[in-house]
Amino acid sequence: MSEQTADASGAVRVTACRGCGCDDLTGVIDLGMQSACDHFPPLDDPADDPRWPLGLVLCGRCALLQLDHDSPAPEEPLAVESATLQAHARDASRRLLERIEAPAGLRVREFSSHHGGSWLGALTEAGCRPVDSDAQLVIDNHSIIHAEALEPEFAERVAALADDGLLAIEFHHALAQLEQGQFDTVRHGHPLYFSLHSWAAACRRHGLSVVDAWTEDVFGGCLVVLARRGEHEPSKAAQQILDSERRARATSPEGYRDFAAHAATTVAALREHVRQARAAGRTVAAYGAGSKAVTMLGVAGLTAEDLPLVADLGPGKQGRRIPGAGIAIVSPEELIAAAPDDVIILTWDIAPEVVAQLRRGGLTDARFYVPLPTFAQVS
Ligand SMILES: [Zn+2]
């Protein structure tokens, strides 16, 4: 019999690290019972949206930050890539090829995110050759973070790698998450949150070493990490990132002491803004029905009464509602037609793009706000 037990929602608490397997797990944030971030029911669906416990624990041995419960089964993605993300796929893959001085015809295998954002088109255009095995470059593009258990999926990537091949990964950097209080990146279906320390530990367990790493600006702060078989020293750039993580204590529970407090301050500021705006007769709407919105609105406890609509570019989401919060998802054109006085940009990582798009569309007098890194007016 397993010692794992399900709670009333059917969720099973994680008792061993999803990476190294040790049981030294410390809670760093508890976000309460939250809906699945990729399940957007039709607006007229009256069903209660199921909720599961959502929180993070940190492993005391390998420093892997991870969800504290097993996630509900993921749904089909409905997202449309923003212009920012499409440009990122092109630019980031070009930087990667330059950094590794890739020869023509490089054999490449991508493990892509089910949220889109594939780099394979850009790599193929640059002369790389897609293969299934013996790849000189294996790319994990926000893919392995969706694994409930790290080890089998890591082994799959290593198996696709040529002897002298490079394993490259891009993930949202736990250090950015910690330093900017990005609690809304915590969500069901995304069990793993890496620092360079915890990724390096995973590499060591599979006979690889980190050789290089650099930051990328998307999603509020990402890291690209290169690793290869054998024992190697990290580059100076990778060493500096390891040092930054150590200084911020991103590898120990003490470093996360203010993380939960920052989240509480953020949602309190968001709620208070909506309350005051409504009391003053201003109308408030939101932009960005991504997975971040589900966590932010769910933790803030905001509903359709507070925010009647949230706009999103994805046609697959329009006519649906934010799970839990019940807020209608509309097109950007419908948001502009509703002419709200205030717009809360839940996709704060692409706020400049959103402001430009909505101002151009006609929201010339609206005020724009972001919840993170601190609740603030941005335009
Ligand atoms: Zn661990």
Report on the structure:
- This protein is an alpha/beta fold and 379 residues long.
- It folds into 3 domains: 64 residues, no CATH class; 174 residues, Vaccinia Virus protein VP39 (Rossmann fold); 120 residues, NAD(P)-binding Rossmann-like Domain (Rossmann fold, 3-Layer(aba) Sandwich), CATH 3.40.50.
- Strand 11, helix 8 and strand 12 form a beta-alpha-beta unit.
- The chain is globular and about 65 Å long.
- Bound molecules: zinc ion.
- The site of zinc ion has 8 residues, from loops.
Give a brief description.
The protein is of the alpha/beta class and 379 residues long.
Which features characterize this protein?
379 residues; Rossmann fold; binds zinc ion; single chain; 6-stranded mixed β-sheet
Describe the SSE topology.
Blueprint (H helix, E strand, L loop, with lengths): L24 E11 L15 E9 L5 E3 L15 H17 L7 E6 L7 H6 L3 E2 L4 E7 L8 H10 L1 E12 L1 H6 L12 E2 L2 H10 L2 E9 L5 E8 L6 H12 L11 H21 L4 E4 L3 H10 L8 E3 L16 E3 L1 H7 L3 E4 L5 H11 L5 E4 L5 E2 L2
Parallel strand pairs: 4-5, 4-6, 6-7, 11-12, 11-14, 12-13, 14-15
Antiparallel strand pairs: 1-2, 2-3, 3-8, 7-10, 9-10, 15-16
Helix pairs in contact: 7-8
Q: What is the number of E strands?
A: 16
What would the average pLDDT be, to the nearest integer? Answer: 93
Summarize the amount of helix as a percent range.
25-40%
Radius of gyration: 21 Å
* CATH-defined topology of the largest domain: Rossmann fold
Structural class comes to alpha/beta
